[in-house]
Amino acid sequence: MDLLKKIKKKNMKEHDKQSEMQVSWIENSDSVSRHFQFEPDGRLSVKVLDDARPVHQRVVESFLNKFFPSGYPYSVNEGYLRYTQFRALQHFSSATLSVLSTQSLLFAAGLRPTPAQATAVSWILKDGMQHVGKLICSNLGARMDSEPKRWRIFADVLYDLGTGLEVLSPLCPHLFLEIAGLGNFAKGMAVVAARATRLPIYSSFAKEGNLSDLFAKGEAISTLFNVVGIGAGIQLASTVCSSMQGKLVVGPLLSIVHIYCVVEEMRATPVNTLNPQRMALIVADFVKTGKISSPADLRYQENLLLPGRLIKDAGNVKVGRAFHKVVKPSRLPELKEIFSEERFLLNRGNKWTDMILERNATGEDALRGWLVAAYAESMDKYSYYESNASVLQDAYERMNSIFTPFLSELQAKGWHTDRFLDGTGSRFAW
Fold this sequence. Notes:
The protein has 430 residues and is α/β, with parallel strands linked by helices. The chain is 62% helix and 10% strand. The strands form 2 sheets. Strands 1, 2, 3, 5, 6, 7 and 9 form a 7-stranded mixed β-sheet that branches. Strands 4-8 form a two-stranded parallel ribbon.
């Protein structure tokens, strides 16, 4: 009888152990939902949930993901669809009229009908490459929200690259269409990136809800100096740059001045939204000095070329890696117990700490996780802990004790904590 009880008890323990090991979650990345599950033997099974959709539905959703904002129709106000329909028709009619006007201008310039037809088609194809570049760049909107400064600089580098190819086109007249098309392709990507980052940059300067006024005045300054620049360009083209040698000297110099000015513009911009780099800088300053930096304080500390660098005083946090690459099945129950009431999980490694966010996590949730990681890093330096779980537990309790006043002061400094702009980072859902 005792033997039967022991066998039964053993079977129940094995069953409980297997139940604990069968952990599953849904991970959202790049608009695709996948179901992950750790099997009892430790294997990871993955199922793409979108495979169950009909083909026509996948085509429609792919179209919406490419041409409509994330979360459409719930992420926009009423009337957006009608606005978009008429905007599309407006651009269609404008582009058609542009083709006719290009052809007519070439005729008016003295080109005879037959060669003019070929020239017009080549010119239109060259401009068409710009639209291809715009379409490709439109997929990167989330990354631009997260790092508007970096993408603004990237846009101007691309624009100068495209312009440089156009300047060099007389050296290879037989490759005019290819070189000019490639130049316009780069400029098309640049135009989208520049326009997409314009709003968050202007928003960072709007102190009294005066975004439209800032935008209008900024465009007025741009227009004025564009006109002045066109005049200077005409003067240079008729003097110093009348030869190819002059253009090869003046062109790079103007490009260097252009990029330098854009970098200085971006360094001066106090962006007040939370992304991985700015959050790490805020937490690092707070842990070291006990003070919270404002957007203006941090603007010159941002690394515009390598925004993903690890900051030791902020816990060496990496955010957005795929859930199944971060957490092993054996560690998951322990982490879930520590962070049972949170929308994040932290897993400390030898070189960095991974933070993975739940699908609906806000900037406040990310801040809580980042503070835990930073405190764990600082506590581990000066104290001996038997396990990562114990240091995380102590760091979590310390974070809870200071978070409310920390958040209040952060918001008072002008930071927007309602969202965390992690670009295309992976998120999970239980």
